[in-house]
Amino acid sequence: MLITRFKSKEERILYLLQGLNNKLSPKFERCTGISSSRYELLCELYEANEINQSTLQKMINIDSAAITRHLKQLEADGMVSRRRNPADNRITFVRLTQEGRERIIGYKVEKANFVSKMMNDFTDEELATLDDLLNRMQNNI
């Protein structure tokens, strides 16, 4: 039985959370058509007219190589545009293109569908409790 592998309930919870995390990203990507990192990046750009690339990197908490990789691919896909700051060539500004704006709207709809399916049959009270518990765990970490 699975429970005997764990010395405590806490270890089992950690195991379940790790399993959930491992399943979440690929399922999210299959349902929405985009990775969760790129989705988060596009959402930040959707809210901002134009943003400094290093500020964007800090907002979504990924390393500089990863942000550059994501932005190059999104630029190749016609979803973002980048430009150098004429006053300081080291600074790059990023913005969504019209194509990017239209596609993020579709991604948001798909994300809402994904979340709805994932939380199917949870009551409002259960969702509030889960939210509280996960926030407490995150704060403890």
What can you see in these coordinates?
By secondary structure, the protein is α+β, with helices and mostly antiparallel strands. It has a domain at 34-109: Arc Repressor Mutant, subunit A. The chain is 67% helix and 12% strand. It has six helices and three strands, in the order ααβααββαα. It has helices spanning 9-32, 36-47, 53-60, 64-76, 98-118, 124-140; strands at residues 51-52, 80-85, 88-96. It has a three-stranded antiparallel beta sheet. A hairpin with a 2-residue loop joins strand 2 and strand 3. Helix 2 packs across helix 5. The longest helix has 24 residues, at 9-32. It is elongated.
If strands are numbered along the chain, what order do they take across the biggest sheet?
A: 1-3-2
- How far the N terminus sits from the C terminus, by CA atoms, comes to 29 Å
- What is the CATH superfamily classification of one domain? Winged helix-like DNA-binding domain superfamily/Winged helix DNA-binding domain
Protein structure class: alpha+beta
Which features does this protein show?
141 residues; alpha+beta; elongated; 3 strands; three-stranded antiparallel β-sheet; Arc Repressor Mutant, subunit A; 6 helices
Question: What does this entry show, briefly?
Answer:
By secondary structure, the protein is of the alpha+beta class. It contains six helices and three strands, in the order ααβααββαα.
Secondary structure layout plus pairing:
Blueprint: H1 9-32, H2 36-47, E1 51-52, H3 53-60, H4 64-76, E2 80-85, E3 88-96, H5 98-118, H6 124-140
Antiparallel strand pairs: 1-3, 2-3
Helix pairs in contact: 2-3, 2-5
